[in-house]
């Protein structure tokens, strides 16, 4: 399972941070950070979701008020949002 984070879209509500420790606050930028991610495109970051964190990562994506977080299954199909 993979998670994709569009940092440009992020508005810094940090609800994702409360749901999963895969996200951290960047108070200086007023946006979240996807920990241990790679920049796939400018301001788009991706990483694999550990099996034991899949539920928390899904919740993080669901609570994002601007849909800046997308979760994909192992076949590359978008499952959230």
Automatic annotation (TrEMBL):
InterPro entries: Fe-S_cluster_ET (IPR051269)
Coiled coil: none
Membrane spanning residue stretches: none
Recorded superkingdom: Archaea
MF term (GO), any: iron-sulfur cluster binding
Protein name, UniProt field: Ferredoxin
Alphabetical UniProt keywords: Electron transport, Iron, Iron-sulfur, Metal-binding, Transport
Lineage start: Archaea, Methanobacteriati, Methanobacteriota, Stenosarchaea group, Halobacteria
